[in-house]
Each structure stands twice: as structure tokens, then as C-alpha cells.
Specification:
401 residues; 11-stranded mixed β-sheet; 13 helices; 13 strands; 53% helix; elongated
């Protein structure tokens, strides 16, 4: 019985393909946006958790902007997600103070700056950012050196680490060790190339896989007013946050900054993406409402166009229930097809993003099942009234029309 109604519904939808496609756009977009947003959120949160698992609670980050408000006891009070977009504010003086803290190791700045890049015997490629840092950058970013080795210790050393995709685009080979690039006229020798690096949610806009990493001393010589976006360090114990706080308070610069341990970083990232998911859910609800209204309109038009068919079916023995189920199943099938199209679209975009960027969106079966249920619910809610009107038509009046 159900299979028969589904076959009839598919036949009716096929007779009005163009109209059905346009009717379903709202459902397709709404479902696709929700699934892709959840996939992206799951992937980035998983990357943050993996980084935390690598270092435990020992990694501490000092970030530009007031990402977190704390009480006088330094306990976390609330997060300010908008502050992740704060420009680089930390100074080299503050970096020096943090390096002198007892028990802190692998102190690593992230100091992005702009400069003209020209490869020698290579092709000019788009560079996401040039970053002044230290030799500890691989372990802080949780990445491996695929070719060569990390940066050296010399303050004036002119070497460079390249992101994986930048190296391939610039020199046409995965490991261009020994090649030379000019950064504002200063020659730097490629010493190593990263394997694929994960994204950094607290430094949006910086794609490490398309970036150049050079020693912080060399970066300071190139950029007259070099500022640091974030400073990471591995701490010996849980008192690191308070130690860093005390040291930075002694700085004459007194930059606007936040200090986060790894657990707080994961929580901040999680809150940020929960907010994005909530926003996507609201947009999805609006899109499904628009799609539902369109679905109701097309079903109303179908009922009007097929009034004589309704009369013939009733004349040969079909009752109100048969007509109601016929048109309601058509509405549900049309809505579910829109949901399936949205799922396919979302997973296709997820695959493209995973293949072409340093983001790693996940796969969430639960949200797919919820999306299918939402599609079915839209079909029932917005298709019931037109189906009821069709079932309520009297046979003789329907035949005369």
C-alpha cells in the first residue's frame, strides 16, 4: 500500500519536474546548511581535542584580545568570541618576559606580517601569511616536518619553513629544500616543509598550509613594527597561567591579552561553534518555513489542476482516506526528496573542503537522521491542508469541473 502511494507520488512529481525543483530549493538549502555547519564544527573541535590530547594541560597560549574575562582569583568567568578577530597586539618585550619564566619551554610566537615574497627559480604564488616564530613551531601546531628540518636558533638566521601546499605551488615539488625566496629583498633558504597542518580556530584567516615561517629575529628585521598575535608555551605545572599573568603585568607595554590553557581553548572553540550551529539552525528553520510555504502552494495548485482526477477516483470507489493519503504522500515524498538533495549537497561540499583546505569536517549521522525527520515533518505539516481539501471534494462537483 505504502509502496503504491510512493510510486504514484513519484509519477506526479515527475510530471512537474521544474516546478518541484524550485519548490524544494528552500528545503535543500536549509538542510544542506545545517549538515555542513555541524560537520565543520565537529571537525574543528576534534582537531582542538587532538592537540589537547597531545600535550595534555601543559600547553598555554597568550592571545591578543580579551578572549576571556577572569575574576581576581584568575578563574574563568566568560568568553568573548568576537575577540578572536583582534589584530596582533603582543610585543617582543612581552615575548622576552615569557621566555624567562621558570619551567616554561618551547616558547613559540605567532607573529604574522605582510611583505613582498619572490621565489628564486620558482613561481609566484599566493601566500596566506608570513609568520615570525621559533624552532618549536612544529610541536606547538601539532604538525610534522615532511621534508628537511625545523628552523635554527640564530636570531639573524635567514631560513624558512613552508606550508605543504605553498611549497608545491611555488616550486612545483613537495620538498624544495635549499631553494631561495626573497622576503622584502632579504634572501631566505628553505630549510623544511610541513606536512598538512590543522587549522587554528584562535587565529582565523591564517592558513598555515599556504604560509611561510621564518625566525622571529629575521621577521623583526623585515617588519619595522612587528606585533605578535599569539604566544604558546609548554608549562611544567598548572600554575603557569598565574605565572604568565604576573610577568605580563610587569610589562611596560601592557597589551590587551588573554591567557588560556588547553582545556579553556577547547571550551572556547566549542562555544564558538555551538553559536554558529545555533545560527545555522535559525537560518535552517527560516529556509524550511519558506520551503514549506512553497510546498503548500504547489500542492494547492496540484489539487486544483487535478480536481477531475479526484472526481473520477471517488466515482470508482476511492474514499476520503484514499485521496487524503494520495496527496499527503505526494507532499511528504517531495519534501523528503528535498531533504535528501540537501544531504547530498552538504556532504559534497564537505568532501571538497576536506580535499582542498586544511580543515577536516567530520561526518555526523545523527544530524542526517534529524534532517530527514525534519523534511518528513515539513511534508506532513504543509501538505495536510491541501490534501484535506482534495479529500473533501464531492465527486459530482469534481467531475463537473
Amino acid at each position: 500500500m505504502i509502496a503504491a502511494y510512493i510510486r504514484m507520488s513519484l509519477h506526479s512529481i515527475g510530471a512537474t519536474r521544474a516546478r518541484s525543483v524550485f519548490t524544494n530549493l528552500g528545503i535543500v538549502i536549509g538542510i544542506g546548511l545545517l549538515i555542513f555547519t555541524v560537520n565543520l564544527s565537529d571537525g574543528i573541535q576534534e582537531q582542538s581535542k587532538q592537540q589537547q590530547a597531545t600535550f595534555g594541560s601543559s600547553i598555554v597560549g597568550v592571545h591578543s584580545g580579551e578572549l576571556v574575562e577572569r575574576s581576581t582569583a584568575l578563574t574563568q568567568e566568560s568568553y568573548r568570541l568576537d575577540q578572536t578577530l583582534t589584530p596582533a597586539l603582543l610585543s617582543l618585550e612581552e615575548l622576552d618576559l615569557i621566555e624567562k619564566i621558570d619551567g616554561s619551554t618551547s616558547v613559540t610566537p605567532i607573529a604574522p606580517f605582510d611583505a613582498q615574497v619572490e621565489p628564486i627559480s620558482g613561481e609566484i604564488a599566493d601566500v596566506s601569511s608570513i609568520i615570525g616564530t621559533t624552532k618549536y613551531i612544529p610541536e606547538i601546531l601539532g604538525g610534522d616536518i615532511a621534508y628537511g628540518e625545523t628552523l635554527g636558533d640564530g636570531e639573524r638566521e635567514r631560513t624558512a619553513l613552508l606550508g605543504k601546499y605553498l611549497a608545491e605551488k611555488m616550486f612545483g615539488e613537495p620538498g624544495p629544500i635549499g631553494k631561495v625566496i626573497r622576503i622584502d629583498g632579504r634572501e631566505h633558504v628553505v630549510r623544511g616543509v610541513f606536512d598538512s597542518l590543522p587549522t587554528d580556530p584562535l587565529n582565523p584567516g591564517v592558513d598555515y598550509n599556504h604560509s611561510i615561517f621564518i625566525p622571529i629575529g629575521s621577521a623583526n628585521l623585515i617588519s619595522d613594527q612587528l606585533k605578535i598575535k599569539s604566544i604558546y608555551l609548554l608549562a611544567a605545572d598548572s600554575s603557569a597561567v598565574s605565572d604568565v599573568q604576573k610577568v605580563l603585568e610587569s610589562s611596560q607595554q601592557r597589551s590587551n591579552y588573554s591567557i588560556l590553557n588547553s582545556e579553556e581553548t577547547v571550551e572556547l572553540v566549542g562555544r564558538g561553534y555551538r553559536l554558529i550551529i545555533m545560527t545555522a539552525a535559525i537560518v535552517t528553520a527560516i529556509a524550511l518555513l519558506v520551503g514549506g510555504i512553497g510546498l503548500s502552494n504547489i500542492m494547492t495548485a496540484n489539487v486544483a489542476e487535478r480536481t477531475r482526477e479526484i472526481g473520477v477516483r471517488k466515482a470508482v470507489g476511492a474514499n476520503r482516506k484514499h485521496i487524503l493519503l494520495q496527496f499527503l504522500s505526494e507532499s511528504v515524498v517531495l519534501s523528503v526528496l528535498g531533504g535528501l538533495a540537501g544531504i547530498v549537497l552538504a556532504e559534497l561540499v564537505t568532501f571538497i573542503v576536506r580535499s582542498t583546505t586544511n580543515l577536516s569536517p567530520g561526518f555526523n549521522l545523527s544530524v542526517i537522521l534529524v534532517s530527514l525527520c525534519l523534511s518528513l515533518l515539513v511534508g506532513v505539516l504543509f501538505g495536510f491542508v491541501p490534501a484535506w481539501r482534495a479529500a473533501s471534494k464531492k465527486p459530482m462537483e469534481a467531475l463537473r469541473s
